Amino acid sequence: MTQDRSQAHVSRRKLLAGAAAAPALSLATPSIAQGTLKGTKLTILAGQWYVPQTNTLLDQLAADLARDSGMEIRVERFAGDELMTKTASVIGTGRGADLAVGVEFDTYVYAAKLNDVTDLADEVGKNYGGWMDAAKAASMVGGRWKSLPIGQAPAAWNWRTDMFRAAGVDKFPDTFAGLLDAAKKLHAKGTPIGMTLGHASGDGRSTNYPVLWAFGGKEFEADGRTVAINSPGTLAAVEWYKEIYQYFIPGTTAWLDPDNNQAFLASKVSATVNVNTIYLASRAAAATDAARKNIVDNMDHANWPSGPAGRFANYNINVWLPFASSPNKAGQREFLKAWYSRTFLPKWTKVGQSYFIPQLAGFDSEDVWPEDPKLKIFRDLNKINRLPGYGGPPTPVAAEAVNKYILVDMFAKACTGQLTPRDAVAWAEKEYQQIARRRSRT
Amino acid sequence: MSAPLAPGAYRSHNPRLERALFVWAPLAFFLIFLVGPFYWMLITALKPDSELYDGSKSPLYVAAPTLDHFIYLFEKTDFVTWVANTMMVATLSTAIALIMGVPAGYALARLRFRGSEFVGTAIFVTYLVPTTLLFIPMVEVMASIGMDDTIWALVIVYPTFLVPFVTWLMSGYFRTIPSDLEDCARIDGLTRLGAMLRIALPLARPGILSAGIFSFTLSWNEFIYALTLVTASAERTIPVGVIVQLTRADFYFWGPLMAGALLGSVPVALVYSFFVDQYASGLTAGAVKG
Amino acid sequence: MGSSTTAGAPDRSTRTVRRSRLSDLVDSERSLGYLLVAPVVLLLLVLVAYPFSVAIGYALSDRTLADPGVFVGLENFVLLWESSIYRQTLRNTFIFTAGSVAIRLVLGVGLALLLNESFRFRRAVRAAILLPWIVPTVLGTMAWLWMFNPNFSVLNYILVQSGLMEHGFNWLTDPDLALFSVLLVNAWRGVPFMAITVLAGLQAIPHDLYDASAIDGAGKFQRFRYVTLPLVMPVLLTALVLSIIWTFSDFGIVYGLTKGGPMNATHVLATLSYQTGLASGNIGEGAAISLTMLPVLLVLIIWQLRRIRRSTVA
């Protein structure tokens, strides 16, 4: 129902925006290359974004552009890990697609096989009040834009206000000591918290980097090559984790991406770190499902607590990858222009319910935010993203460490008692060094 | 009938007890272990979403069963197309694998020719090369012959792992069939080829059927090539299609997923059982008849 | 057809027909042999040998998905040997394979003997036990993922409700148990294959052999040991070898259940290769990981093939 309302709202906006803003902006005039695009083909690999309307709008954009340009456009969808495999296969073989939705590492891992889109990025930045730092970090390699950021999905603490209150905690803790204390109380009440220590490709990052950084730990020095994981900060983070783990719900070392959602939806955990999909799913089912309505009424979102070194967050990022192997570079650019046009991007952002948010500073003052008060926080969360490798720039070395779950496993080894905190950090250091050494050859 | 045990063997025991102990008890174990998960799939497929995470009820039955997830599968996804695609790929690649692999298996088992041992081992070794290693060069090879991004690529690629499999299964199978019948036939005037076609192949029918069934299943299940060689959603196979349309990064649509798993296996199992029955009951008689 | 014999054949037909050179050629044991294996060899040369040699090239280079890289000799293998994750993975792969194949063998042969008996609903049972083998791996694995779920495990529900345990098992959470859990699912998929293959072998055993042994007074076990087992041995060994290969290189089950976690306790060579070669883009190193499967399998297979050849029925 909420979604219906926002849809109606959007179509009104679309008319206004289209009439007023379009003529002034070159991005909004997708007719330049019409003649040359006729008869060409464009295959786009996309994921399944959680909010269905964002997928529908992409299809619609492709259909409209195809009609206007005479270009044949196919949008082919793959889910999470399968999209990654498919993209890797296109990069490796130069076959199968012209454009794809990628994740943040893709840009710097695949930079050599991506087209330079610096001019487009500059224009988009100009039109929307500038790109945020997280966007530049994700999409720029050696000072050039090799992809265009789509957005990021801010992860927050999803917490049950009723369960916290019952345990004597009135608001979400603002320090890591406070979080540990709350976890103890909640555990005693039989409503523990939990976040993943398993090989979960999305949640594994967004729940573990913020802890490392908040205690002053980092993976690399500013050069992005020198391994710096073995530090007092990291050790403090591991020790904090080891302590709070005793009060977690059992099983988090096997949690994959859906598990924290499922546990929260079943009221088995009182708090976990996740994007807003738990809330959106509950809200969508609340009308017919009393259990879900109860969750909607009794949950809220909160920012990460502040640690000795500050407050940090890590979110998954999506970008458009323009494959250099594509024989249809003009078509690629035409699609990207249409995507970032004023008639499309604000509309797409608005229906997205702050699930994926473009990292464009100008949106802060635009009407692209959901009305729901429980989603308001994501507008501010959007400003604090840091990429893996932080301390240094994001690099293929940092990406590989993420893909090998080194950080997650370091915490897990200490939490489960397989290694002492000190040994777990030493283990991670060795793994990081090996990856760095392997990568330094190229 | 096909029981190899002579009736007299039970004479001194309590036949009922023995049967319960040696037939029904192990059978129950096998059914629970092998088929139990399918009961769970069925229950999950029939459960409305509201019961899925509901800890207050037993997860082993459904309070308010619904066909919604099956309807969703048919109306909101391309399930029917995926089934048709998978059927087509699996049938064709199995046919190719049998046509090439059965005679080769016969040759390796029966005919003495220089290098046969080497060829046999070499064929088998290709079966050891893991898909995770091969698929990137394979996509390139397919692209170079203009076969990328089409379901027909799978019809060509699947035989690469089916043929060695069939060849080896069949050469093992031909070795279990005594060769006297073929020798006799050759005395009666058949050529070697004739003896193979008219004598050995009919005798090997159970082996051929099982090689066919297993090839079909290997194609039916294949995931990595189906994912990387085919882009178009209209040309996907069941495993890729179901996973791609019914999982999000952090949500699984358990109901339709399990409905898809059931519909993707139960009908095939029924067809297979028909084949298995064919060779299970028909074979021994055939062998004796010669 | 049926009109000629080769000169070399010890027995000849009574008919005297002019032999054409072509039929001569086809009827010689050697040429027919070559003729029958040629298509297979050709297919595999083009579609496996070539990509395989390309992949070996990858393994000897520091190629990434985005960069062709340079030749580095055996450096990838040296790096692997130094990696604690790789060594752990190697160990996991052996346990995974040995455990799963042992279960497949014992349960598979047992089930085949059982299905060879006559009982009511045999046909339905045969259809039902095929299901784990038929259901697409990724989907069957999803069902197990849900059954093993740390917080919603139906298996634990049953164990707890029936009073057998207080809390149930940490199926995928405990590192040692997780490896057992993934190998159990692998065996679950593989038992029907073993059973049906061996069943086909059992059905091929001529009845008179049993009759003869019964007359000789052989007991049930003796009949199994001296009649059944030797006769199904070729089929059994073939199925065994195939099971070993499939398990050793299995990817889908670990990928679907744990992605190699917790703490790499369930990583097998195929998933590590995938994670390294694709997810991280190091296809050189990924190829090297895959390649290390080969020597192990090769030794095993050549040994087994010898045995299969020797067990040929005369």
Could you describe the 3D structure shown?
The complex is a heterotrimer of chains A (442), B (290) and C (314). Chain A has 442 residues and is of the alpha+beta class. Chain A has helices at 2-21, 34-37, 52-69, 80-93, 104-109, 118-127, 133-139, 161-166, 176-188, 203-206, 209-214, 232-245, 257-265, 277-285, 290-298, 329-339, 345-351, 377-381, 396-403, 406-415, 421-440, and strands at residues 41-46, 72-77, 99-103, 140-141, 144-145, 148-153, 156-160, 271-274, 299-302, 316-322. Chain A has two domains: 2-146 and 316-381, D-Maltodextrin-Binding Protein, domain 2 (3-Layer(aba) Sandwich), CATH 3.40.190; 156-314 and 386-440, D-Maltodextrin-Binding Protein, domain 2. Chain A is 48% helix and 11% strand. Chain B is mainly alpha-helical. Chain B folds into two domains: 9-66, no CATH class; 71-289, MetI-like (MetI-like fold, Orthogonal Bundle), CATH 1.10.3720. Chain B has 14 helices and no strands. Chain B is flat, with a radius of gyration of 24 Å. The radius of gyration of chain C is 25 Å and the shape is flat. The model of chain C is unreliable at 1-17 (pLDDT under 50). Classes of the chains: A alpha+beta (442), B mainly alpha (290), C mainly alpha (314). The A-C interface holds A 84-85, 88-89, 91-92, 109-113, 197-201, 249-256, 259, 262-263, 266, 268, 396, 399-400, 403-405, 408-409, 412-413, 416, 418, 427, 430-431, 434, 437-438, 441-442 and C 62, 64-67, 69, 72, 79, 82-85, 145, 148-152, 170-173, 175, 178, 258-264, 275-276, 278-283, 285.
